[in-house]
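Hi Y.,

Following your request, here is the sequence exactly as I used it, all 657 residues.
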Amino acid sequence: MSYARPLGPGRACPRAAAAWLALAAPATAASAPVTSGSALPADTPARASASFPRVFDRARQAADSALRAADAVGHAADSAGTEDDLRAAQRRFERRRRRRLPRTLSGADSCDRPLGRFCHWFEHPSPEPRPEPPAVAAERRELLDRLADGARRLPGSAWIAGQRVRYQIEAGRPDSALAAARACRAGGGWCRALAGWALHAAGREAEAERAFDRWLEALPAGERCEATDLSDLLEGDLRSRFRDLPCPDPRRDAFVRRFWWLADPLRLVEGNERRAEDLSRRTQDRILSSSASTFLASWGPDLSELLLRYGAPTWWERRPADPLRPGSRATVVGHDAGHARSFLPRRDVWMSSGSLETDVWDLSDDEPPTSYATAYADTFLALPHRTAIFRRGDSVLVAAPYAFPDSGTAPVEALLELGPGPEIEPARRVRYGAPRAGTLTLRAPARPALLSIELLDRSERAAARARYGLDPGLPDRGIPAISGLLAGPLRRGRPPTSGSAPGGGVSSPEDRAVAAARRLRLSGPAARAAPSVAAGDSVGLYWELYGLPPGRAAYEVQVALGDRDGHRNVRLVWWEEATGGSGFSAHELTLGIPDDAPAGTLAVEIRVDIPGWTPLEAVSPLEIGPPPPRSRAGPHGPQDGGAPHRGGGTLGGSPVY
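Below is the corresponding structure, written out as C-alpha cells. Let me know if you'd prefer a different format.
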C-alpha cells in the first residue's frame, strides 16, 4: 500500500499513501475489463465482482438486518419523518462536499489493484495531504447539530447514532463521538460497537476492545461469525484453511484469537490497536452501507473490501472530467494514511510460538494486501539487538542488549516480553525513560514463547521492534550444556575480572550475567547488530556451563577471534577442572583485541571439549573499529579459576535471533 525511501542508515521516510478511484461501470462486472476514467454516477447500483466471495452479500444482509432490528427495539413508536429528513440532509452534505473538494489530475493512468468499480493504487512518493475546505467543515458542523437534535427526539435510532459518531470522528473529535455513542439507546449491542470505534479513535485501545467484545457477545451467532470473518485479510493457504473452519466452532474462535495476538503492532502499547481497528472498520461498514458515501457510487462489496483492507480515506480530492474524452465524468479520489503497513501474520498462525520466524511478518512491504497506520508511530524499524539465554533452574534469564537504529537522543519506552500464546499471561518487563542503547533482562518460565523486544520514541513518532519465536530447549538435568555468549567492550581502566566461579562466586550468577549484558555496546543498523570494540581495546566475555557431573574431571576451553574465512587473530587454549559438585560454572574472561585486527565484523568463538561428550560451542559477532589515539595493546591471557566440567547439549548456543 505504500513505499519507503531510505533517508540514511537505519532511518526510513514516512511511508507513502494509497488512493482509491471509482472506475467506469461496465454492463456486467464479472466479464468487463477494468479501466480507469469516468466516475460512476451517484445512483449507480452496487454490483458484486466475480472475484468477491459471497461472504460480502451475507455480511451486507446481516448488517442491514442488524440495523433494522436495533431501530425496531430502540424506537418502535418513533416518527419516520424525522429520520428521513436527516437522511436527506446527510446526502445533501456529501453532494456539497464532493463539489468543494480540491481538484487533482492524479490517478488517471495508475491501477495497481482493481476492485469491482474501483481502482486502488500505491502512491510513490506520498503526496502531502491537502486541507479540507472550510466550507465543508462548516457544513459538517451544521449536519452534526441537526443529528444531535434528531437524537434527542429519536434516541433509539441506530442510523442517527451511527452518523453522529461517524462525523464527529471525521472532524477529529473522538471525545464528542464517545459522548454520542453513550447517548445512544439503540438495541442489539449497536451502541457498544459505536463506543468501541470512538474509544479506538481516541487511542484508548484496551477500552475499545472491551466495548467491542460486549458488542460481539450481544450478536446472534450468525452475525458474530460475519463480524469476525478474516477471509478478506488472509492470503493463499491461510485463507483456505480459515474458510474450512465451521462457525460457530471453538477451533475457529481459537484461530481468530491467535491471529490477532500475533498481529498486535506493539505489545508495549496497552490493548491491541490492530484488532480494534478491524472492528472499527466493520462498524463503519455497517454505517456506510445505509448512507451516502463521499464517492460517486453507492456502497457495495467493492467499497466494503477496500474499507476492511485499507481503512477509510483520510483526505479527499476531486478529479474533473477529461474534456478530450467523450463520456468522461468527474471522479472522487480518496487517499489513505501515509505511513500504513501490514502488521498481520502472513503464515504459520498455528505453529508453536517458539518456532515462529521473523519473516512471518513483513513490515517493509511497499504494497501490502492490507494495511494500518498506528496513531503513535510513522516509522517502524528493525531493532538491532542480541539475545542470550541463561538457565535458572526451571526458568531462564533472557538478556537482550539493544540499540535504537537512529541518531535521536531522547529516552524511549522499552519492552522485553516472552508470551506462549493469547491464553497465557506473558512474562514481561517494561522500562520508561530507557536509554536508546541499553540492555533488557527478564526471568521467564523455560517454555517455547514468542519473544518481542520493542522500543518507542513518541516524540519522534518512531518505533523499532524484533519479534520471533524462542525455545530455550533446556536439556535434561545432568546433560552438560552451554549458555549464550555475551561479548562486550570494557571501560578503560576496568580491572580484569576473575575467570570462572563455580557455584556463583562472590556475586550471584544472575547479577554477573546482567552486568555482562549491560557492557555490550551495539553498532550497525542491521537487526543482528554486533557489539562494538576498537582495535587495541579489551572485550569482556561471559558464558555459563550447566549439567556438569560431580567429581574432578578436566576439560579443554578454546577461545578464538576470527573472520568468516577461518583466519584466527587470537586463539587461546587452556584446561580447567570441574570442582564443587554443583554442576554449574560461570565464566568471565577479558580478551585483548590486537592493534592490527582488521576492521569489520569478526566472530568470538567459545568451544568446550569434555571427554565423552559432544563439544559445546557458543559464538558472538564482534564489530572491530579502528584503534583510538594512544590505544592500549596486548591481549590478556585467561584468568585464574574455573573447574573442569563436561558438556553435550546447548542452551542458547550462539546468541539467538
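The first strand starts at residue 6 and ends at 8.

Thanks again,
Q.
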